[in-house]
Amino acid sequence: MRALTAAEAREADRLTTERLGISPLQLMENAAHQLSLQLMRWLANPACSPRVILCGKGNNGGDGLALARLLRKAGFPCEVLVFAPAEQLSGAAAEQLKNFRECGGEVTHVTGAAEWETHKAAVLSAPLLVDAILGTGLNAGVEGFLAGVIEDINRRGDNLVVAVDIPSGLPSDGPLTHSPAIRADYTITFTAPKVGLLLHPNSEYAGQVRVCSIGTPPELFPENPAANLSWSEPQEFRGLPLRRRREQHKGDFGHVLIVAGSRGKSGAAALAGLGALRSGAGLVTIATPESIQPVVAGHQPELMTEPLAETEAGSISLRALEYGRLEKLLEGKTVLALGPGLGTHPETQQFIRTVAGQCPLPVILDADGLNAYAGRAGELKTRSGKFLAVTPHPGEMARLQGISAAEVQKRRLETARTTAEEWNAFTVLKGASTLVAAPDGRVWVNSTGNPGMATGGTGDVLTGILAGLTAQFGTRDWERVLALGVYLHGAAGDSATMGAWRTGLIATDVAADLRGVFGELLRELGIEPY
What we know:
Layout: H1 6-20, H2 24-43, E1 51-55, H3 59-73, E2 79-82, H4 91-102, E3 107-109, H5 113-125, E4 128-132, H6 145-154, E5 160-164, E6 186-190, H7 195-198, H8 203-206, E7 208-212, E8 229-231, E9 255-259, H9 266-278, E10 283-289, H10 293-299, E11 304-308, H11 325-330, E12 335-338, H12 346-358, E13 363-365, H13 368-371, E14 388-390, H14 394-401, H15 405-410, H16 412-423, E15 426-429, E16 435-437, E17 443-445, H17 458-473, H18 478-496, H19 507-512, H20 514-524
Parallel strand pairs: 1-2, 1-4, 2-3, 4-5, 5-6, 6-7, 8-17, 9-10, 9-12, 10-11, 12-13, 13-14, 14-15
Antiparallel strand pairs: 15-16, 16-17
Helix pairs in contact: 2-3, 3-4, 5-6, 9-10, 9-17, 17-18, 18-20
């Protein structure tokens, strides 16, 4: 689903009114209806009472007032605070205030710090807070007493905070600066996700994002090829051949070759292999140093293994390329994953660059495969193969770029885009809100996953997943395939920690939950598994 800037969202609303005849007031009613549906699972819980809706004077506040009216009629009355005098509301927001009062609703107007202090304790003790103070029209940081209100809300205890469209104070388009923004547990946004909800660090304030349609079809989204930012959500993967036919066999789902591992790092190779198997590859072969080949083979009986000549350090030697060994390894394979646990021995790094440069298959380059190009990233584009995906975390990207990890994090979207173009490769920049950038400038942003996945081996599982999906679905729509892999990887991490502590999650937990989350994806898309 394409993400919109604030200006694009406003233009989409305008076109909806102009071409479809849906008035701004009706759009607001549609938004309130969707909000009420999303809130129902909490509203039905007696522990989520009392409920407080915090409204501003603009359209975001109008959404909140319309919601308050609908909830009141449904038997879920809420306390409503409006952070402006009544005369400052105009247009649809003023109409919603009038409608709410006519149905018996009462509003408390809070216009300064002293009034806020009077009501603060009651508000912050409410189990459920709905934030409808400031919306996407904000074009400067929050100042004055509203800044204090936001800071107070962020110091809350266990209150559940649901933001309407966007958390108050969060920029719709760019990164958060030094002014405050509400940290929401959930954000219910309309029509399409806003750019500011998706990119790190803003995404930390948005919580879980849910998109609701209020009547604007995607064909009315303004044309903006320069933006080209899409949110990875289930509907985006509908076009892939996710359903298997009964007559298909293992040969139809590709053969992954993984070159990985070294002495002391056999687990990296095994985890990548497990990721490829669990993501549905028909066959998986791991080529690894000869001394650890039995260890890797013992991790998982479904894995096939090939021993390679090794250095005195127990990593792969250049001798592994002698006598046409590489060509033989590549025979019958669909995709190559190269890097996990290979080590940084100079001879091994030269082996990596030789293989990546000459391999005709699609290549997934990760971990030590990327470290082999530190200080020489320009060589990534001088290869014979057409398809390359690099999967760096911020530290690996920093080494490739010759900058600090902090600089990478400050410019994640720009970094992903520019490197994909420079290297003519697909860049998967890992971390919070992982980005998948294509050479033509298109970028996908992922929202699944959690901090529990920050543990050794989860990246190796992702490498295997990307290779396994590529083996099945090919490279015709490769950025979508890669985005699916990132989505499933994060969703498996979320599934593995559901109802449990995130601390202590390990990589094999993620791999174990892949089948379940893939099944959930199929069910959400209405696809029968057989």
